[in-house]
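Hi U.,

Before I forget, here's the chain from the pilot set. I'm dumping it here mostly so it's searchable later in email.
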Amino acid sequence: MDYILKLDSQREFFDSGATLDLKFRLRQLAQLKCAIKKYETELFGALFADLGKSEFESYASEIGIVYREIDYMSQNLYRLVRKKKVKSPLSIFYSQSSIIKVPLGCVLIIAPWNYPFQLLIAPLIGAIAAGNCIVAKPSEISHNTNNIICRMLREFFAEEYILVAEGEGSQVVSSLIAQGSFNHVFFTGSATVGRQVATYCAQKLIPYTLELGGKSPAIIDKSANLKIAAKRLIWGKLFNCGQTCIAPDYVLIHSDIYAEFVKQLLIAAKELNGDNLEQLGKIINQRQFERLINYLTMGEVIFGGINDKQTLKISLSILENPLCDSALMHEEIFGPILPLVKYHTDEELFKTLRSKRYPLALYLFSNDNMLNRKIGTEIESGAIGINNCLYHFVNHNLPFGGIMTSGNGSYHGRYSFEVFTHSKALVKSNNFPDLAAKYPPYTKLKLKFLKLFS
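Structure:
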């Protein structure tokens, strides 16, 4: 599809200055909330059709989070956009310095299939609050949710303000970036596609944010409360059938408590219905299902391993003795499969963690404050959860984002506003005094004054 005319129309609308008005932005946020409320029931149905999500999980992980983001932006917009005065050096004492927050312009938001609603709308909220025009590209893979999103946004927003782009991502995204003059691209998805998006952007020097993934480890230290650690770990892995970028990907367990922790893990897995296919969601499509089934051959299944090709369901599957050089231990799993790895010393633990650097999240179950500090400061990760899984994602007061191969940039709450905003330096000077010392010729006396006042 040729988007040139529509993208030009967006640029004209932005240049009109309409989005600079804070009241306009607040109206759009209120309108977005009304749109979601109108389509909430249909969204529940679409998310169930695509991913088998219950209404509880859909609201907790998709819709409720978006409502909170809208409320936060609506309540804090005037504070976020306020001009910030800063000090001026003595050499320009007759000037006032400040930082003003201005919108970037026209931005492109590209969403994945695993949380197809929330991962599109959450950054959209930040872009609206910051005063941008937006092109939204939902995932065609989660096609039921994609259809609802497209209908909703087109009903409530003009294309010159929020344009929805549909189609095969590999074709549409490259075409949009090539045809458009975007001021920023915000991408959520795999590292492989993220590199492609970064390449497209680099050719036009477009700034970008990448929200990617990686193998997020969970660590069970011998000081941990094993029963609580097991239950929270299983809960985190079962959420959205493990199709979560911050799901615990593999578990490193201290050898002293390995046997007891595995016992508690199996109890928690059974208690939380990890082997009951009727209670679980589904894998997004056949391709992902086959990939995950293949992983089950790369270790010894001690729980689960049940699957149904017709419904694309896989039970929680816990594996011991995973093959170290297998895809299971090198690729992001993105499914309900949990390999267990034993370690004996902290040195061995750190060596393993550093062999798989830059996860999007790291989960440490420990009551050893010294170990908590050491891992928190010495191991690179996008975030760290101590004695929990996934919790940091739902707190809009925290930045959410990766590091290196798990992404760059962050969002949620005020960070969503910041990522779509330019902090512009402003220096306003009085006409008088107009000091002669700053003009040529530059004498030794002027140099002396420069050193004195710098």
